Amino acid sequence: MNPKILRQQRDPAFNEILDQIRAYDNSDHHSVVHIRLDEYTVVILNQLKLATGIDITRVMAFAISDLLKQHPELQLAIDQFLKQLKT
Question: For residue range 44-65, what is the model confidence (pLDDT) as tens digits?
């Protein structure tokens, strides 16, 4: 079944986040990171892929990028830690 068929029936907020994930360009990403996820998260991500056609790698890249954008204090904490190592 085409995921676009159900678009009208979904919550607009859900459509918005799906559109943001689809628009996220990870074509220039070449690094590979192996992550461990709990079983529930893996099931949800697999179901999301089946329901929307969005690749899990794109979801994870978007999520991590979005996390770092929404929480710049993480980068500040990393920078401070690295400065302390240099002294």
Answer: 999 999 989 999 999 999 999 9
Number of other CB atoms surrounding residue 59 within 10 Å: 19
| Residues contacting residue 51 through CB under 8 Å, at least 6 positions apart | 3
Nearest to 56 by CA among 34, 75, 82: 34
For residue 1, give every residue at least 6 positions away whose Cβ sits within 8 Å of its Cβ, in sequence order, or none.
none
> Counting every residue, how long is the chain?
87
Cα angle 58, 32, 42; round to 5: 50
Asked whether the beta carbons of 3 and 53 are under 8 A apart, the reply is: yes
What value does the mean pLDDT take over residues 5-24? Answer: 82
